[in-house]
Amino acid sequence: RGKGGFTLLEMVVATAIFATLMLSVGMGVLAVQQTWRKIHMHSAKIRSLMALDRVIDVSFRNMIPFTWPDEKDDNKEKSVFVGDENRMVFASMHRINEGDPNALRFISVYQDGDNLCAEYRNTPIIESDKNDAGMRKDVLATGVENVSFLYLSKSESGEIEWKGDWDEVILGDGPPLPLAVQITVEWKNGDVYSWLRRTAGSGKHESFGSRQAKISTAK
Length: 219
Hints:
Shape: elongated
Strand content: 25-35%
Oligomer: single chain
Radius of gyration: 29 Å
Number of helices: 3
Distance between the termini: 113 Å
Mean pLDDT: 78
Number of strands: 12
C-alpha cells in the first residue's frame, strides 16, 4: 500500500461491488422498461378492441334489409346483403350529422392481407358494380390471421341454426337478413375474439320487420 493509497485487493473488491451495483441498477431499469412496454402494448390492444367493438356494435345492430335495382342485370332488384364466410356487405342505419346527412350507410367488412378492413359508401355496394366512387376505407385491426362470419337462421319449423354463408336462393322466402351475425377475429399472436350481435331488421318479430308487415297489410 502506498501512502494514502489502496491495495490491489481493495481495488478488486471495490470494482466488484461497483459492477454488482451497476448490474442491479441495469436489471432494474430493464425490468421497468419491459413492464412499461407490456403496459403500453396492453393499453394499445384494449384501445384497438374497444374501437373495433364500437364499429361492430353500431353497424351490426343497425343492419337493415335493403334491395337495389342492378342496372347490369335488367334492373333486377337485388339484396345489398352479402354474407360469405370471410366477407360481409350490408346496409346499416346511422346517426345523421351535419357532415353526412344520409341516414343509410353501406358497409363491406373483410380481411385484406393481415388487416381487418371496412369500406363505407353512401350508395349501395352491388357485386357487379366495381365503381369505387365515394368509397372510404378504414383499417379496423392489424396483425390479423383470419376473419370469419357466422349467420343465425330460423327455419320454417322454428329451428335455429348457424350458417357459414347466407344464401338467398337456399333461404327462399325467409327473412332478408340473419337473426344475428357473429364475427370471429384471429390474430397472428394467437389472440381470438368473437362478437355476436342481433340485427335490426332480421325478421317479423323485430321492430323493422313488424313495420314492414303493417305496411304490407295496409296496402
